[in-house]
Amino acid sequence: MNDIIDGLMQIPARISPKYFYDAKGSALFEDITRLQAYYPTRTEHGIMIAKGREMAREIGEQRTLIELGAGNCQKARALCELIRPSHFLAVDISEAFLHDAVAAMRLSFPKIDIRAIAADLTTDFVLPPDVPEHGRLVFYPGSSIGNFDLPEALSLLKRIRALLLDDGALLIGVDLLKNETVLYKAYDDELGVTAAFNLNALDHLNHLIGSDFDTRQWQHRAFFNSAQSRIEMHLEALTDQHVHWHHGVRCFSRGERIHTENSYKYRVDDFVDILRDAGLTRTQVWTDDKAWFAVMLARP
Predict the structure, then answer these.
(1) How far apart are CA 80 and CA 75, in angstroms?
(2) Mean pLDDT score of the chain, rounded to an integer?
(3) Contact call for residues 101 and 71 (beta carbons, < 8 A)
(4) Regions of the chain short of the pLDDT cut 50
(5) Cα torsion at 257, 263, 265, 268 (round to 10°)?
(6) CB atoms within 10 A of CB 285
(7) How far is CA 30 from each of CA 23, 25, 49, 164, 223, rounded to the nearest angstrom?
(8) Gap between the Cα atoms of 140 and 268, Å rounded
(9) In terms of C-beta density within 10 A (0-12 exposed, 13-18 middle, 19 or more buried), how is residue 109 classed?
(10) How many CA atoms lie within 13 A of 87 on its CB side?
(11) Domain range annotation of the chain
(12) β-strands 230-237, 241-245 pairing
């Protein structure tokens, strides 16, 4: 957990967004996806409904489907119906939440070889040796690629490319640049669900490193950084305070922030260029009518 402490000691302090996802955080994120203001999940789902059969024809059947950041596997369910994979591997950092979702998938799709893999996408992860190498489809929905800065995003896409032979492909969701008002509402909802999700990261850190963050002394902040084309989420100290953990302490002044997440918003052509740099040179793009979101099928 040295990365947590290193991040807390930076100025400004930082927490990797992967620490949102303990069991409670994963459940809160599922609540976020059901909010009317949170357009990405709803818009991506609409694209999959409208264009799913066309995508399925391009993808083909009996592939090995590998979903990154699988969560509750709901998005994979619809894709499994369309492409009838021979194998499904659900990859997520929240192990307990993942295993429950995979157990439900096995009941729904008894003919598919279904497995759970607990892994951190920010590091190299290894697939089981008996997973077929040919015909892999990596599925990375939900615009989660936007949580990574450009060098990190490119690194992840290159690792995905390394999982694929020439007959492999990546199906990825990408959030597109849009009106700032829409973005603000999506990341700072009136019900406070996103705030609870952000604050829960501090409770997760308390569990992981033995810190004594008091979430009552922090508040959620979200804003659009137009220069970087990204939404930023922060936690802001409401009071001067000292936060302790095993063999360490950090003093925070009132108004000081911890940067918890970025969510980059792309233009279609710019993201296609990034895919090309990662070795995925052939790309098809589907968007919604408002061009708020894109689903891209990228091949070597």
Answers:
(1) 9
(2) 96
(3) yes
(4) none
(5) 150
(6) 14
(7) 11, 9, 20, 29, 22
(8) 16
(9) middle
(10) 19
(11) 2-10+180-264, 39-178+265-299
(12) unpaired
Provide the token pair at 74: 């709901």
- Sign of the Cα pseudo-torsion (83, 88, 93, 97, in order): positive
Rg (the chain; Cα; Å): 19
CATH architecture of 39-178+265-299: 3-Layer(aba) Sandwich (3.40)
Extract the tokens encoding 238: 């409401």
Question: Which helix (H) or strand (E) covers residue 287, if one does?
Answer: strand 282-287
pLDDT in tens, 96-152: 888 889 999 999 999 999 999 999 898 888 899 999 999 999 999 999 999 999 999
**What's the confidence (pLDDT) of residue 136?**
98
Task: Fill in the DSSP letter of residue 264.
Answer: E
pLDDT digits (tens, 9 = 90+) for 241-257: 999 999 999 999 999 99
Which residue type sits at 136? R
Written as one letter, the residue type at 211 is: S
